[in-house]
Amino acid sequence: MKNSVQIANPIYDVVLKFLFEELSIAKLFLEAVLGYEIEELTIRPQEKPTIDNQKQKNKYKDLNTSLQRALQMSIFRLDFLAKIRTEEGTKTVMLELQKESLPNDTMRFRGYLGKLYSDKEAYETIAEHLKYPKKIGIPVIGIYILGSGLPIIKEVPILYVRNVLEDYTTKQEIKVRDYFVQSLSHESFMISVPALSKYKRTELEQLLSIFDQSNKKNSDRYILEISKEEIPEKYHKFIDRLYKAAQDPEIRKGMEELDVIYEEIVDLMHYKKHYEQERNLREQAEKRAEESLLREAKALLEAEASKQIQQKEQRKREEEQQKREEEQQKREEEQRKREEEQRKREELEIRFIKLLYAQNMPIEEIAMQLNVEVEQIIEVVNSHLK
């Protein structure tokens, strides 16, 4: 590589922090990204979590807490308060610069933004177009340097997300800026490091090549080798400062320590994945066992219910059978009564016929008196009187 220079790899937090501690370089970088001149720039106080090495032996005791704490360390952030000159005039903005070195959950980025939005110092007082001065939130612009790139949009090195106001009905864009809208929304720039090696079309893309990981020097991941001629001259101070960082043993030690931390993070993530897999398998086994017990219990309940239904139906059949037998007995008893009554009537008729016949009443007259056929009278006479 012609006129190559070996620089410290700014993907490491300790290097990026060293680079931007030079406020003139931070200003130049932010102007390159924003595309606006910055009139004033200050770095806001920033606390960064650290890992307590005394607790490493117990790092798995509370896995989620350890992992969340470690993942926070994989995100580098700086907050700036800036006055920028735009087409609409000078305005104050909050610049949230975040860099991640490992694939991260967007919730952590949102969490940092939430803290910035709720910061009591992130407000300003305005009086323009208002009857009385009003305290409003300072507009926020996010700049994200993504070491692992975007998950879906992989080929775009710099993604600009801007706020566009439009009339909902007419779809006409509204050019006027409203402080209320600006307080509740923000523009952002997303720099995908893996996509930087393919493009050097603009001065910004050429400047961002300082993050291009394809420029690593052999197997030394802490050093990038880049051509100074490929970087616009006004950005050469970046190369000079990163070259200085590459010569600093304390910075190299810091990069090595960060690698240890990242290895801890990967270790925790793998452990968590393994732990969650085992937990899922255990939960699935418990679920299957529970489902098996439920099926057995359901089968027993269904069998018991079926048995009770069968017993109920059997009792119902027995009761119906008993009822039929009782009705049959009742019919037979009624039949016997009828037969007994019939026999008694016949005996009474025979005695009456005997009486009348003994009084020498003619057979025809007896039949008339009893309202029966003559043949019946004759039959009785022949059977019982001769």
Order of helices and strands: EHHEHEEHEEEEEEHEHEEHHHH
What is the percentage of strand-forming residues? 15-25%
Shape: rod-shaped
Number of helices: 10
The portion of residues assigned to helices is: 40-55%
Q: Report the end-to-end length measured between terminal Cα atoms.
A: 158 Å
Number of strands: 13
Mean pLDDT: 82
Major beta sheet summary = 6 strands, mixed
Structural class: alpha+beta
What's the arrangement of strands in the largest beta sheet? 2-3-4-7-11-8
Radius of gyration based on Cα positions: 52 Å
Detail the poorly predicted runs: 49-61, 66-73
Verbal overview:
It is a single chain. The protein is an alpha+beta fold and 386 residues long. Helices cover 51% and strands 20% of the residues. A hairpin with a 2-residue loop joins strand 12 (216-217) and strand 13. The longest helix has 110 residues, at 249-358. The chain is rod-shaped.
Give a quick precis of the structure:
This protein has helices spanning 13-20, 23-34, 63-73, 106-118, 179-183, 203-208, 236-246, 249-358, 363-370, 374-384, and strands spanning 4-8, 37-43, 75-86, 89-100, 123-126, 134-137, 140-146, 158-161, 165-166, 173-174, 186-192, 216-217, 220-227. The chain is an alpha+beta fold and 386 residues long.
